[in-house]
Amino acid sequence: MELENLFPNKEGSVHLWQGDDDALVPVTLQRYVAKKLPWIHYHEIPEQGICFLLFPGMVDNIVKTS
Q: Known InterPro entries for this protein (predicted)?
């Protein structure tokens, strides 16, 4: 997996959010991507699927995360 670091001067990052019960995107894939690309901050939501955004307060948590 070879992707150029979008933030070589550490001026930014990418946050990746994943429910560990997601039936569409394997959680193992997202873990692998996050491990290989250090500029990605991985957030895994336990016992949630693809609709974790509907969980009360989740959107606020995501927006406030930097």
A: AB_hydrolase_fold
